[in-house]
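Need residues for this backbone.
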């Protein structure tokens, strides 16, 4: 009888320690997810055509950016980037430097003026 009680006590002990180990592990994973350096976000970038799309995505694909996808219909640029290597502000700056206004950065006039005619989104050229 004593043996059975001991066995139960032992079993209970193991279950308890295992459960808390599981809980700790789960907590750790959750923390890692919360502080993950990989960030997915999107912001508005103005453009009108396929050429714009190429230009915008190339401009956004700097070091630390894994994915850059621009949709001319929604005018949104989706980016997945490593926050240890770059910031979303930097991506705004790069895109603007290539001639496309974002919701936070304006492209310099000099660069904008050099865009092909079909890409002149500030001069009434519609999405095509
Ligand atoms: Cu264009």
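Answer:
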């Amino acid at each position: 009888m004593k043996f059975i009680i001991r066995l139960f006590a032992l079993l209970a002990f193991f279950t308890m320690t295992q459960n808390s180990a599981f809980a700790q592990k789960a907590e750790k994973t959750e923390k890692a997810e919360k502080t993950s350096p990989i960030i997915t976000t999107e912001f508005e970038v103005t453009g009108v055509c396929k050429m714009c799309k190429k230009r915008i995505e190339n401009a956004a694909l700097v070091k630390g950016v894994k994915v850059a996808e621009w949709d001319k219909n929604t005018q949104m640029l989706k980016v997945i980037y490593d926050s240890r290597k770059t910031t979303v502000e930097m991506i705004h700056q790069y895109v603007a430097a290539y001639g496309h206004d974002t919701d936070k950065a304006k492209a310099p006039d000099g660069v904008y003026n050099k865009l092909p005619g079909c890409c002149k989104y500030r001069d009434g050229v519609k999405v095509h």
